[in-house]
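Researcher: We're teaching a course module on how sequence relates to structure. For the next exercise, students receive a sequence and then see the predicted structure as tokens, so they can try to spot secondary structure elements on their own. Here is the exercise chain.
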Amino acid sequence: MAQSRVVRSVLLTMAAAAVFIALAGIVGAQTPAPASYVPPVYTPPPPPPPPSPAALALLARIQGLGDLSMFSNALMASRINLTLIGIIGGGKVTVFAPNNGAFAMLSPELKQCLDTQSGKIDVLTQIMLFHLAVGGNYTVAELKTISRLTAASGMPIDLMTLGDGTIMVEGTARVVVPDAITGVNATVHIINDIIFPESILSTVMIQCYNVPPSASLPVPSAGFF
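Model: And here is the predicted structure for the students to work with:
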């Protein structure tokens, strides 16, 4: 009996200790933070700088040229107009702008594809980037001494000057109105064809022409699109 009382006493002592520890934990959890504690204040990132006047002026001049209305619309539809603004804000650019006749020559399948949301994101964006050459705003006289430029997408743009002085871009587009727009940070040349980066040819064939994915996908000839 005495042993039972001892065990019961020990158990009661342990239970009391457990209750004390639990209450201490509750009280500790509810203890308010010291008065000196100041929670961190969220500081939003600064807004992006406003577009440079030169960039806005260039876009306005492109839009003002009647034969570049489709090119201007394509820049806005793909949101590459924002890329162009950013480039001009921090550097120089040479723009190869296809005229309305070049857009009119696109196949019905490709036009329909470029009007879809996925077509704008996957295809039109890359096409428009390929028409912006970064690193300099070159006049036609300077282009005649250059054989390759770098597009805003990082792809190479090949140039060739013919015997009569005409400049060919990627072998298919002819510069028909050189130095159409000139500025401090940008020069625009009007071309008569849309140039396509080789990196998106398979995407165009699969997404816009419903060609099944294949490792042996043929490269379309010039003028196919």
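Model: If you want an answer key for the exercise: The chain has a mean pLDDT of 85. The beta strands are 93-98, 132-134, 148-151, 156-161, 167-169, 173-182, 186-191.
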